[in-house]
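Researcher: Let's continue the batch. This sequence belongs to TIGR04168 family protein, and it's 300 residues. Same format as the previous ones, please.
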Amino acid sequence: MIKIAVVGDVHDQWEEEDGIALKCLGVDLVLFVGDFGNESVDVVRRVASLDIPKAVIMGNHDAWYSATEWGRKKCPYDRTKEDWVQEQLDLLGDIHVGYSKLDFPTLSLTVVGGRPFSWGGPDMKFADICKQRYGIGTIEESADLIHASVKSATYETIIFVGHNGPSGLGDRPEDPCGKDWHPIGGDFGDPDFAEAISLAMTENKIIPLVAFGHMHHTLRHTKQVIRKRVFRSPEGIIYLNAATVPRIVENVRGKLRNFSLLQMEGGVVIQVSSAWVGDDFKVASEEVLYQQPDKVVQAV
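Model: Same format as before. Here are the structure tokens for TIGR04168 family protein:
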């Protein structure tokens, strides 16, 4: 049994206690789906120092002051002298899997990253940063580069991680990659990510999980429902949107920290849950989002 934690969009909410919580949960692997903050170097430094096997991909907020004209106008530092995007990448080193991969020999699996700094949608919103840093100018080139990581993977079992999820998971605003701002509706997943996953499937790779965030669970156009968080494909792949925002909340009893928790066995995800961990580092509440039929899963 492999236990995996997926940390949704952080948005400056990462503390020393989060690392302790993960240790207490006994996870074998932690996946971070990006948006640590607006080029929040200090948050990334704390994540990089976490002493648990991990893989990270950067989100659009992690290049907030560098990738767009309006962001550059509000940049709090001198971009001719500093580069906070590069500082984050340097801190993460090999654990940043955007357009790359990371093998985990003790788990016999490879984590492959999608397009880093993704904004979502059919176009490459942050095209300049992809061109400057990775030489990628089109969706097709992006899909090819992700697929190259699949082909170089050491293991047949591959977990995909992206900031935004792939296209093809539904066209409603409430779907995992749905567009919930005006005009609402439509699939806002990444087509290059979807293409790379499809190619991996044709090569008979074992794909238990595709983890991502970006599209927050709370919706802008309605408060009656929250976003669909888990989608199971006909092939048995679990697609998980882990973007619970805010991921740390406070009540009269203290702080609660959110983690998406998965249990995997034999290359198959058998349970997914959304867990809130209290100040005693025990699970205060847990919502099971998916469970393999007829499978008994041990409690966290």
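Researcher: Any comment?
Model: The radius of gyration is 18 Å.
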